[in-house]
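Quick start: what a row looks like.
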Amino acid sequence: MICKNIKCKKEISDDFEYCPYCGRKQTVAERKKSKRPNGAGSVYKNSGHRSKPWVAVRNKQLLGSYATKAEAFEALERSAGASITEKYNYTFSEIYELWSEEKYRTLTKKGIEGYRSAYRNSAALYDKKFRNIKTPDFQSVIDRFAEQGKSKSVASKLKQLFSQMSQWAMREDITTKNYATFVTLEGEETKDKNIFTDTDIAKLKADNSETAQIVLLLIYTGARITELFTAEKTNCFDEYFIGGIKTEAGKNRIIYVPEVAREYYKYFVQSSKETLLDGYSGNKNVNNFRGRDFDELMEKLSIEGKTPHSARHTFTSQAVKNKVQPEVLQQLLGHAKYSTTVDNYSHINKDSILAEAQKIW
Protein backbone atom coordinates (compact mmCIF):
# COMPACT_ATOMS: atom_id res chain seq x y z
CA MET A 1 0.00 0.00 0.00
CA ILE A 2 0.97 3.67 -0.29
CA CYS A 3 1.74 5.73 2.84
CA LYS A 4 -1.16 7.95 3.78
CA ASN A 5 1.18 10.92 4.29
CA ILE A 6 0.74 12.90 1.03
CA LYS A 7 4.31 14.22 1.35
CA CYS A 8 5.73 10.73 1.77
CA LYS A 9 3.71 8.42 -0.48
CA LYS A 10 6.25 5.62 -0.14
CA GLU A 11 5.17 2.08 -0.87
CA ILE A 12 5.02 0.05 2.32
CA SER A 13 3.75 -3.31 3.45
CA ASP A 14 -0.01 -3.66 4.05
CA ASP A 15 0.54 -4.85 7.63
CA PHE A 16 2.57 -1.80 8.71
CA GLU A 17 0.75 0.26 11.33
CA TYR A 18 3.29 3.07 10.95
CA CYS A 19 5.29 4.14 7.90
CA PRO A 20 8.97 3.19 8.37
CA TYR A 21 10.02 6.26 6.36
CA CYS A 22 7.99 9.12 7.86
CA GLY A 23 6.45 7.52 10.93
CA ARG A 24 2.85 8.35 9.91
CA LYS A 25 0.19 6.10 11.45
CA GLN A 26 -1.65 4.27 8.68
CA THR A 27 -4.90 3.52 10.49
CA VAL A 28 -7.22 6.28 11.60
CA ALA A 29 -9.40 5.69 14.64
CA GLU A 30 -13.06 6.20 13.83
CA ARG A 31 -14.34 9.34 15.50
CA LYS A 32 -16.98 8.59 18.06
CA LYS A 33 -20.27 10.33 17.46
CA SER A 34 -21.46 12.42 20.36
CA LYS A 35 -24.46 10.79 21.93
CA ARG A 36 -27.34 12.79 23.35
CA PRO A 37 -28.77 11.73 26.71
CA ASN A 38 -31.73 9.36 26.66
CA GLY A 39 -34.96 11.22 25.99
CA ALA A 40 -33.17 14.33 24.68
CA GLY A 41 -34.18 13.61 21.11
CA SER A 42 -32.24 13.47 17.87
CA VAL A 43 -31.72 15.37 14.65
CA TYR A 44 -31.21 13.92 11.19
CA LYS A 45 -31.17 15.12 7.60
CA ASN A 46 -33.55 13.84 4.91
CA SER A 47 -32.16 13.07 1.47
CA GLY A 48 -33.02 14.97 -1.69
CA HIS A 49 -33.47 18.65 -2.42
CA ARG A 50 -35.74 20.04 0.27
CA SER A 51 -36.21 23.54 1.64
CA LYS A 52 -36.38 22.09 5.16
CA PRO A 53 -34.29 18.87 5.16
CA TRP A 54 -33.42 18.75 8.89
CA VAL A 55 -35.81 16.82 11.13
CA ALA A 56 -36.07 16.91 14.93
CA VAL A 57 -37.49 13.91 16.81
CA ARG A 58 -38.04 13.29 20.52
CA ASN A 59 -39.63 10.27 22.16
CA LYS A 60 -40.42 8.90 18.67
CA GLN A 61 -42.53 12.00 17.97
CA LEU A 62 -41.72 14.25 15.01
CA LEU A 63 -41.27 17.86 16.16
CA GLY A 64 -40.99 19.28 12.66
CA SER A 65 -38.76 19.94 9.64
CA TYR A 66 -36.27 22.80 9.54
CA ALA A 67 -34.02 24.62 7.08
CA THR A 68 -30.85 24.23 9.15
CA LYS A 69 -29.40 21.79 11.65
CA ALA A 70 -29.20 24.58 14.21
CA GLU A 71 -32.94 25.27 13.91
CA ALA A 72 -33.69 21.58 14.45
CA PHE A 73 -31.59 21.48 17.63
CA GLU A 74 -33.29 24.68 18.81
CA ALA A 75 -36.63 22.91 18.42
CA LEU A 76 -35.35 20.08 20.62
CA GLU A 77 -34.24 22.57 23.26
CA ARG A 78 -37.60 24.34 23.20
CA SER A 79 -39.35 21.02 23.75
CA ALA A 80 -37.09 20.07 26.67
CA GLY A 81 -39.06 19.63 29.82
CA ALA A 82 -42.36 19.44 27.95
CA SER A 83 -44.20 16.16 27.87
CA ILE A 84 -44.33 14.99 24.27
CA THR A 85 -47.06 12.46 23.81
CA GLU A 86 -48.93 11.11 20.83
CA LYS A 87 -51.24 14.12 21.07
CA TYR A 88 -48.38 16.40 20.00
CA ASN A 89 -48.81 15.28 16.40
CA TYR A 90 -52.59 15.15 16.34
CA THR A 91 -54.29 16.63 13.29
CA PHE A 92 -57.08 19.19 13.32
CA SER A 93 -59.62 16.35 12.96
CA GLU A 94 -58.15 14.37 15.85
CA ILE A 95 -58.18 17.43 18.11
CA TYR A 96 -61.79 18.08 17.12
CA GLU A 97 -62.81 14.55 18.12
CA LEU A 98 -61.16 14.89 21.54
CA TRP A 99 -62.42 18.43 22.13
CA SER A 100 -66.00 17.69 21.02
CA GLU A 101 -66.23 14.57 23.17
CA GLU A 102 -65.65 16.80 26.17
CA LYS A 103 -67.46 19.95 24.98
CA TYR A 104 -70.68 18.42 23.66
CA ARG A 105 -71.64 17.09 27.08
CA THR A 106 -72.47 20.67 28.10
CA LEU A 107 -74.32 21.78 24.94
CA THR A 108 -77.87 21.59 23.64
CA LYS A 109 -78.69 19.74 20.45
CA LYS A 110 -78.81 23.07 18.56
CA GLY A 111 -75.44 24.16 19.96
CA ILE A 112 -73.84 20.87 18.92
CA GLU A 113 -75.18 21.16 15.36
CA GLY A 114 -73.72 24.65 15.09
CA TYR A 115 -70.22 23.39 15.87
CA ARG A 116 -70.64 20.32 13.68
CA SER A 117 -71.59 22.56 10.77
CA ALA A 118 -68.52 24.73 11.39
CA TYR A 119 -66.35 21.61 11.45
CA ARG A 120 -67.78 20.44 8.10
CA ASN A 121 -66.80 23.85 6.68
CA SER A 122 -63.20 23.37 7.86
CA ALA A 123 -62.22 20.51 5.54
CA ALA A 124 -59.10 22.37 4.35
CA LEU A 125 -57.61 21.94 7.85
CA TYR A 126 -58.59 18.33 8.57
CA ASP A 127 -55.20 16.71 7.89
CA LYS A 128 -52.97 19.51 9.16
CA LYS A 129 -51.12 18.97 12.43
CA PHE A 130 -52.86 21.26 14.86
CA ARG A 131 -49.62 22.60 16.36
CA ASN A 132 -48.62 23.84 12.89
CA ILE A 133 -51.86 25.74 12.24
CA LYS A 134 -51.40 29.50 12.56
CA THR A 135 -53.59 32.60 12.12
CA PRO A 136 -53.25 32.70 8.28
CA ASP A 137 -54.52 29.10 8.07
CA PHE A 138 -57.63 29.90 10.12
CA GLN A 139 -58.12 33.22 8.31
CA SER A 140 -57.87 31.55 4.91
CA VAL A 141 -60.80 29.22 5.70
CA ILE A 142 -62.94 32.12 6.90
CA ASP A 143 -61.97 34.36 3.96
CA ARG A 144 -63.06 31.72 1.46
CA PHE A 145 -66.54 31.71 2.94
CA ALA A 146 -66.60 35.51 2.92
CA GLU A 147 -65.73 35.45 -0.79
CA GLN A 148 -68.58 33.00 -1.42
CA GLY A 149 -71.09 35.37 0.15
CA LYS A 150 -71.77 33.25 3.24
CA SER A 151 -73.43 34.96 6.18
CA LYS A 152 -71.34 36.51 8.93
CA SER A 153 -72.80 34.00 11.40
CA VAL A 154 -71.04 31.16 9.51
CA ALA A 155 -67.69 32.93 9.78
CA SER A 156 -68.34 33.79 13.43
CA LYS A 157 -69.06 30.15 14.29
CA LEU A 158 -65.88 29.06 12.50
CA LYS A 159 -63.82 31.50 14.53
CA GLN A 160 -65.52 30.31 17.73
CA LEU A 161 -64.74 26.67 16.90
CA PHE A 162 -61.10 27.43 16.07
CA SER A 163 -60.63 29.44 19.25
CA GLN A 164 -62.15 26.83 21.57
CA MET A 165 -60.17 24.01 19.98
CA SER A 166 -57.00 26.11 20.35
CA GLN A 167 -57.75 26.72 24.03
CA TRP A 168 -58.17 22.99 24.53
CA ALA A 169 -54.88 22.30 22.70
CA MET A 170 -53.10 24.83 24.92
CA ARG A 171 -54.45 23.11 28.02
CA GLU A 172 -53.08 19.80 26.73
CA ASP A 173 -49.62 21.34 25.98
CA ILE A 174 -50.04 20.67 22.26
CA THR A 175 -49.70 24.33 21.30
CA THR A 176 -48.60 27.43 23.18
CA LYS A 177 -50.81 30.11 21.63
CA ASN A 178 -54.41 30.65 20.53
CA TYR A 179 -53.85 31.89 16.98
CA ALA A 180 -57.59 31.95 16.29
CA THR A 181 -58.00 35.06 18.43
CA PHE A 182 -56.18 37.10 15.77
CA VAL A 183 -58.65 36.15 13.02
CA THR A 184 -60.73 39.03 11.62
CA LEU A 185 -64.27 38.63 10.36
CA GLU A 186 -65.67 40.53 7.36
CA GLY A 187 -67.30 43.68 8.67
CA GLU A 188 -65.36 43.75 11.92
CA GLU A 189 -63.24 46.77 12.70
CA THR A 190 -59.96 45.95 10.96
CA LYS A 191 -57.17 45.28 13.41
CA ASP A 192 -53.72 46.74 12.84
CA LYS A 193 -52.19 43.27 12.84
CA ASN A 194 -54.40 42.32 9.88
CA ILE A 195 -53.29 45.23 7.70
CA PHE A 196 -50.13 45.41 5.63
CA THR A 197 -48.04 48.15 7.22
CA ASP A 198 -45.90 50.67 5.34
CA THR A 199 -42.89 48.53 6.28
CA ASP A 200 -44.57 45.41 4.87
CA ILE A 201 -45.37 47.22 1.62
CA ALA A 202 -41.78 48.48 1.37
CA LYS A 203 -40.53 44.89 1.73
CA LEU A 204 -42.86 43.76 -1.07
CA LYS A 205 -41.67 46.53 -3.36
CA ALA A 206 -38.03 45.75 -2.65
CA ASP A 207 -38.59 42.05 -3.36
CA ASN A 208 -40.32 42.91 -6.68
CA SER A 209 -40.92 39.25 -7.54
CA GLU A 210 -44.01 38.34 -9.55
CA THR A 211 -45.63 37.05 -6.37
CA ALA A 212 -44.85 40.31 -4.54
CA GLN A 213 -46.32 42.29 -7.45
CA ILE A 214 -49.57 40.30 -7.23
CA VAL A 215 -49.81 41.01 -3.50
CA LEU A 216 -49.21 44.71 -4.18
CA LEU A 217 -51.97 44.68 -6.81
CA LEU A 218 -54.33 43.17 -4.23
CA ILE A 219 -53.39 45.88 -1.74
CA TYR A 220 -53.68 48.79 -4.17
CA THR A 221 -56.89 47.68 -5.94
CA GLY A 222 -58.86 46.09 -3.09
CA ALA A 223 -59.77 43.24 -5.42
CA ARG A 224 -60.50 39.81 -4.03
CA ILE A 225 -57.79 37.33 -4.96
CA THR A 226 -60.19 35.31 -7.12
CA GLU A 227 -61.22 38.48 -8.95
CA LEU A 228 -57.61 39.23 -9.84
CA PHE A 229 -56.94 35.70 -11.10
CA THR A 230 -60.11 35.50 -13.20
CA ALA A 231 -60.12 39.00 -14.77
CA GLU A 232 -60.28 38.67 -18.58
CA LYS A 233 -57.70 40.48 -20.69
CA THR A 234 -60.41 41.94 -22.92
CA ASN A 235 -61.74 43.75 -19.84
CA CYS A 236 -58.36 45.28 -18.91
CA PHE A 237 -57.98 48.99 -19.67
CA ASP A 238 -55.25 51.55 -18.95
CA GLU A 239 -56.41 52.64 -15.49
CA TYR A 240 -58.84 49.92 -14.47
CA PHE A 241 -60.24 46.50 -15.28
CA ILE A 242 -63.78 45.16 -15.22
CA GLY A 243 -64.19 42.16 -13.00
CA GLY A 244 -65.74 40.86 -9.83
CA ILE A 245 -67.42 37.80 -8.35
CA LYS A 246 -69.74 36.80 -5.54
CA THR A 247 -72.91 38.92 -5.79
CA GLU A 248 -74.65 40.98 -8.46
CA ALA A 249 -73.23 44.07 -6.77
CA GLY A 250 -69.74 42.63 -7.05
CA LYS A 251 -69.88 41.48 -10.67
CA ASN A 252 -68.89 43.55 -13.70
CA ARG A 253 -67.66 46.46 -11.63
CA ILE A 254 -64.79 48.89 -12.11
CA ILE A 255 -61.63 47.88 -10.24
CA TYR A 256 -59.34 50.90 -10.34
CA VAL A 257 -55.57 50.47 -10.63
CA PRO A 258 -53.80 53.50 -9.09
CA GLU A 259 -50.65 54.99 -10.56
CA VAL A 260 -48.51 53.43 -7.82
CA ALA A 261 -49.53 49.93 -9.03
CA ARG A 262 -49.75 50.63 -12.76
CA GLU A 263 -46.28 49.21 -13.47
CA TYR A 264 -47.18 45.80 -11.99
CA TYR A 265 -50.55 45.84 -13.74
CA LYS A 266 -49.04 46.58 -17.18
CA TYR A 267 -46.45 43.85 -16.70
CA PHE A 268 -49.12 41.18 -16.27
CA VAL A 269 -51.39 42.60 -19.01
CA GLN A 270 -48.52 42.48 -21.51
CA SER A 271 -47.61 38.87 -20.61
CA SER A 272 -51.24 37.65 -20.54
CA LYS A 273 -53.24 35.90 -23.26
CA GLU A 274 -56.75 35.36 -21.94
CA THR A 275 -56.79 36.31 -18.26
CA LEU A 276 -54.86 38.99 -16.43
CA LEU A 277 -52.54 36.60 -14.57
CA ASP A 278 -52.23 33.69 -16.99
CA GLY A 279 -48.67 34.84 -17.75
CA TYR A 280 -47.69 34.43 -14.08
CA SER A 281 -44.92 31.86 -13.74
CA GLY A 282 -46.07 30.60 -10.32
CA ASN A 283 -49.21 28.79 -9.17
CA LYS A 284 -52.19 30.00 -11.19
CA ASN A 285 -54.66 28.04 -9.07
CA VAL A 286 -55.92 30.45 -6.40
CA ASN A 287 -55.81 27.93 -3.54
CA ASN A 288 -52.29 26.80 -4.48
CA PHE A 289 -51.17 30.42 -4.73
CA ARG A 290 -52.50 31.07 -1.21
CA GLY A 291 -50.99 27.98 0.39
CA ARG A 292 -47.65 28.02 -1.44
CA ASP A 293 -46.52 31.18 -3.22
CA PHE A 294 -48.12 33.67 -0.83
CA ASP A 295 -47.17 31.87 2.39
CA GLU A 296 -43.59 31.28 1.19
CA LEU A 297 -43.21 34.97 0.32
CA MET A 298 -44.55 36.08 3.72
CA GLU A 299 -42.09 33.74 5.44
CA LYS A 300 -39.22 34.96 3.26
CA LEU A 301 -39.98 38.63 4.02
CA SER A 302 -40.79 37.99 7.72
CA ILE A 303 -44.30 39.40 7.35
CA GLU A 304 -46.44 37.71 10.00
CA GLY A 305 -50.17 37.16 10.45
CA LYS A 306 -51.24 38.12 6.93
CA THR A 307 -53.47 36.38 4.38
CA PRO A 308 -54.33 37.51 0.83
CA HIS A 309 -57.55 38.95 2.28
CA SER A 310 -55.44 41.22 4.50
CA ALA A 311 -54.69 43.19 1.32
CA ARG A 312 -58.40 43.99 0.99
CA HIS A 313 -58.54 45.11 4.62
CA THR A 314 -55.55 47.36 3.93
CA PHE A 315 -57.27 48.92 0.92
CA THR A 316 -60.47 49.53 2.89
CA SER A 317 -58.59 51.08 5.81
CA GLN A 318 -56.72 53.42 3.46
CA ALA A 319 -59.95 54.43 1.70
CA VAL A 320 -61.71 55.23 4.96
CA LYS A 321 -58.68 57.21 6.17
CA ASN A 322 -58.79 59.31 2.98
CA LYS A 323 -62.57 59.87 3.30
CA VAL A 324 -63.70 58.16 0.12
CA GLN A 325 -67.49 58.47 -0.25
CA PRO A 326 -69.06 55.40 1.43
CA GLU A 327 -71.33 54.69 -1.54
CA VAL A 328 -68.34 54.72 -3.92
CA LEU A 329 -66.26 52.56 -1.61
CA GLN A 330 -69.10 50.03 -1.50
CA GLN A 331 -69.01 49.80 -5.28
CA LEU A 332 -65.21 49.65 -5.42
CA LEU A 333 -65.31 46.73 -2.99
CA GLY A 334 -68.34 45.09 -4.62
CA HIS A 335 -70.21 44.80 -1.33
CA ALA A 336 -73.71 43.40 -1.62
CA LYS A 337 -75.27 46.28 0.31
CA TYR A 338 -74.34 48.60 -2.56
CA SER A 339 -77.37 47.29 -4.46
CA THR A 340 -79.67 48.78 -1.83
CA THR A 341 -77.68 51.99 -1.40
CA VAL A 342 -77.33 52.88 -5.07
CA ASP A 343 -80.95 54.05 -5.37
CA ASN A 344 -80.04 57.00 -3.19
CA TYR A 345 -76.93 57.92 -5.19
CA SER A 346 -77.99 58.12 -8.83
CA HIS A 347 -75.04 60.42 -9.62
CA ILE A 348 -72.52 57.55 -9.36
CA ASN A 349 -70.88 56.79 -12.72
CA LYS A 350 -67.50 55.67 -14.01
CA ASP A 351 -65.94 59.15 -13.80
CA SER A 352 -67.04 59.74 -10.21
CA ILE A 353 -65.83 56.27 -9.22
CA LEU A 354 -62.40 56.87 -10.75
CA ALA A 355 -62.20 60.34 -9.21
CA GLU A 356 -62.92 58.99 -5.72
CA ALA A 357 -60.60 56.00 -6.20
CA GLN A 358 -57.70 58.34 -6.90
CA LYS A 359 -57.96 59.65 -3.34
CA ILE A 360 -57.01 56.30 -1.83
CA TRP A 361 -53.31 56.04 -2.68
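That is the whole record. The domain at 89-182 is CATH 1.10.150.130 (DNA polymerase; domain 1). Strands lie at 42-45, 54-58, 61-66, 240-243, 253-256.
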